[in-house]
Amino acid sequence: VPTTWMMGFRNNLVRSEGVRDKPYTDLSDKIDPNTGEKIKTVGVGVSSHNKWFPRAGPNGRVTAEQVNYSFVGASNDAAVAGARTAASIEKWNQGSFQLFSEIAYQSGTGFANLSSYKRFLSVYKTGDVAKAKEAFKETPAYKHSAESRRKQYFAMIDAGI
């Protein structure tokens, strides 16, 4: 993807997620099937079920280097998934790339294969903005986001369609 698209994606993630050096319980309030504990998040919103999740040290915190490393890895993976999704539904533009990459960052890189996103992607592909926004309201990305992030998602839908 163009460098400016990737920079915009990463800058928006930092604005939306913030940067924390101490793990906290994820807003989804879900249980991690690997650990049996509630999903934790740290750094720039990297969750404990993501392979890039950094492990906190004895002081309960992660280092700046760990935050950077996890963010680069997780955002690269999400960008690849976002780009593939945008291309697969023939919506190759910055708005679609950013939207799908952010969804991949929040919901996992396999989001496009989840039933909770299939209707949204199908409607999005048609180009009907109003219906796409309604379908998006049924996705985990919408349901587990604060109002400010929901507005960002809707702006990306506007820009991508």
Can you walk through the features of this model?
This protein is mainly alpha-helical and 161 residues long. 57% of the residues lie in helices and 7% in strands. It has a three-stranded antiparallel sheet with strand order 1-2-3.
SSE topology:
Blueprint: H1 3-17, E1 20-25, E2 40-43, E3 46-47, H2 64-88, H3 94-107, H4 115-126, H5 129-136, H6 140-143, H7 147-160
Antiparallel strand pairs: 1-2, 2-3
Helix pairs in contact: 1-3, 2-3, 3-7, 4-5
Number of strands: 3
Radius of gyration: 15 Å
> What's the shape?
globular
Report the β-strand fraction as a percent range: 5-15%
Helix content: 55-70%
User: What class would the helix/strand composition place it in?
Assistant: mainly alpha
Mean residue pLDDT: 95
> What's the main sheet like?
3 strands, antiparallel
Oligomer: single chain
Helical run tally: 7
Measured between the Cα atoms of the first and last residue, the distance is: 18 Å
- The sequence of SSEs as H and E is HEEEHHHHHH
Q: How would you write the strand order of the largest sheet?
A: 1-2-3
Low-confidence segments, ≥5 residues, pLDDT <50? none
